[in-house]
TrEMBL record:
The keyword Repeat appears for this protein: no
Domain ABC transporter, chain residue ranges per copy: 14-275
InterPro entries (alphabetical): AAA+_ATPase, ABC_AA/LPS_Transport, ABC_transporter-like_ATP-bd, BCA_ABC_TP_C, P-loop_NTPase
Presence of keyword Membrane: yes
Keyword terms, alphabetized: ATP-binding, Cell inner membrane, Cell membrane, Membrane, Nucleotide-binding, Transport
GO cellular component terms, A-Z: plasma membrane
GO molecular function terms listed in the Swiss-Prot or TrEMBL record: ATP binding; ATP hydrolysis activity; L-isoleucine transmembrane transporter activity; L-phenylalanine transmembrane transporter activity; L-valine transmembrane transporter activity
Source species: Paraburkholderia silvatlantica
GO BP terms in the entry: D-alanine transmembrane transport; L-alanine transport; L-isoleucine import across plasma membrane; L-valine import across plasma membrane
Listed name of the protein: Amino acid/amide ABC transporter ATP-binding protein 1 (HAAT family)
PROSITE patterns hit by this protein: ABC_TRANSPORTER_2
Database matches in Pfam families: ABC_tran (PF00005), BCA_ABC_TP_C (PF12399)
Length: 290
């Protein structure tokens, strides 16, 4: 069968061909190819240092590949800036959680609408003191109405996290627990109305019940049809969520397939055992300390 031109493949969001990223002598991502179709949940697993976060950076525009091609929805977006990718609907969270420490929870989430609005009306969500001044000076305008709508939407997104964030919407992000900062990041990403959500270890630093809550949320997003690319260390989570799994080791893709196929793949077991990262009791792949 002839190899299909990806640009003619309907429903493929990311189509990544042979991307490579080198840091001095180290090849962190080595000729990795993958694709993610609309509506899929694809997980990237692998031991610490395997190149997972670096790969995410290449897809989200926070870093550029030395080689290879990244296509999104049929377009070559290799080396595009994060903002350009966000405007196309690529939203991501960071492994260690990034929030604006001095902004409130609500304003942190409102910022997520920026790329979406920049695309439609070249506007900015009005946040914090600027919003207060604006509301005082420009009463009764269409923009004020949009501002209210955005706030309502942000609150609805925050309500997805139950009582974790709602009582804290006016609190500065620096006062939040680590787990709550991760939740704020996801809420901010959802405000973009993403076409694909890239989650880098969303349950890192979370205990068992927090992890179970996060699993429920991601399952729900998946059921709503959101396309998800997930980096995750907790294998039971990966097994529950993923349609397909891609395994990286030392920058290379060593396996890919259905969750069960991958779990039983001898190369995958060797990669984890070789790095001594498998928890004996839990079966979780334990991340080394950051
Ligand atoms: P993972 O997310 O799978 O744990 P990373 O993508 O963070 O792995 O890292 C892959 C390899 O690349 C590691 O050896 C890491 O030290 C290295 N690396 C990542 N980012 C940089 C950087 N900015 N400069 C130099 N080396 C880096
Ligand atoms: Mg990482």
């Amino acid at each position: 069968m002839a190899i299909q031109n990806s640009q003619a493949s309907p429903g493929i969001l990311f189509d990544v061909r042979h991307v490579t990223r080198r840091f001095d002598g180290l090849t962190a991502v080595d000729q990795v190819s993958l694709s993610v179709a609309e509506g899929e949940c694809v997980s990237v697993i692998g031991p610490n240092g395997a190149g997972k976060s670096t790969l995410f950076n290449l897809l989200a525009g926070t870093d550029k590949p030395d080689d290879g091609i990244v296509r999104f929805d049929g377009d070559d977006v290799t080396g595009f800036a994060p903002e350009a990718l966000a405007q196309r609907g690529v939203a991501r969270t960071f492994q260690h959680g990034r929030v604006f420490a001095n902004l409130s929870v609500l304003d942190n989430v409102l910022i997520g609408a920026h790329s979406r609005l920049a695309m439609t009306r070249r506007g900015w969500p009005l946040i914090g003191a600027i919003a207060e001044v604006y509301r005082a000076l420009v009463p009764g305008t269409r923009l004020r109405h949009e501002d209210e709508q955005l706030r309502d939407e942000a609150k609805a997104v925050l309500a997805r996290f139950g009582t974790r964030l709602m009582p804290r919407i006016d609190a500065p992000a620096h006062s939040l627990s680590y787990a709550n900062r991760r939740r704020v990041e996801i809420a901010r990403a959802l405000m973009l109305h993403p076409r694909i959500l890239l989650l880098d270890e969303p349950t890192a630093g979370m205990n068992e019940s927090e992890t179970a809550e996060m699993l429920e949320l991601i399952l729900q997003l998946k059921q709503e049809g959101l396309t998800i690319l997930l980096i995750e260390h907790k294998l039971d989570l990966v097994m529950r969520l993923s349609d397909r799994v891609i395994v990286l080791d030392d920058g290379r893709k060593i396996a890919s397939g259905l969750p069960d196929e991958v779990r039983n793949n001898p190369r995958v077991i060797e990669a984890y055992l070789g790095h001594r990262h498998v928890g004996q009791r839990t079966g979780h792949v334990v991340p080394a300390a950051a």
